[in-house]
Amino acid sequence: MSDVIPLPRDEDGSIRGRVVAMLRAGTLGPGDRLMEADLAARFRTSRTPVREALRQLEAEGLVSHVPRVGATVRRLDYSEVVELYEMRAVMEGTAARLAARMASAVELAALAEVNLALAEATEPARAAALNRVFHARLLDAARNRFLSQAALGLERTMSILGPSTLGDAARAAAAVEEHSAVLDALSARDGAQAEALMRRHIEGAQAQRMRQMTAGAGA
Are 98 and 142 contacting, i.e. CB atoms less than 8 angstroms apart? Predict the structure, then answer.
């Protein structure tokens, strides 16, 4: 059954969405130049939609415009990454607390199914996609449209960070266990416990990301 879970498309089929997909895959990284001509050739389109997509990405904070260089992928410093994860912990912790009260039995079963598929995933890209499905469905179950909108914006910004921390097998296994603990709290309708466990889960992802950043800086 887990094989038929629809995986999230990276935004949509637009030029902007495809650039975001490249960020998540690590094909593009912080500081990389985004040449209109190169992207137009890659996506087999004219430079006009590429230019518009880059403007959208700049407005969203994913792209920076450097004088005499042009558009580049925004580079976040250590403190900015910490702030991103702190905000994510607040948002998703709140979502878990709300979902403990609002989620239906069907939604909880669907979350469990996604987590099972994540446990069985062998490809990092599929694991990352399933993880996004899990978190998106949890936000849906919270029944707060403004929280969902804010979390979506944050998740887009986090695409700058590149591939998911679930590329690390130990972190992926830990994430599955942490999801299971959150699900237990949701099923028990224990909002305080669900919130605390979700915050702890995000903190685990943050710790792994910081280890990766530190290792990369020392390479």
Answer: yes
Q: Are strands 63-66 and 70-73 parallel, antiparallel or unpaired?
A: antiparallel
Do residues 197 and 155 lie in contact, with contact meaning Cβ atoms separated by under 8 Å?
no
SS3 content of the chain, % helix, strand, coil (to 5): 75, 5, 20
> Which domain does 65 fall in, by range?
15-73
Q: What is the pLDDT of residues 45-91, one digit of tens each?
A: 999 999 999 999 999 999 998 888 899 999 999 999 999 999 999 99
Residue 181 · residue 200 · CB < 8 Å: no
Domain containing residue 82: CATH number: 1.20.120.530
Q: Is residue 19 part of a domain?
A: yes
pTM equals 0.88
Q: Tokens representing 137?
A: 């469905």
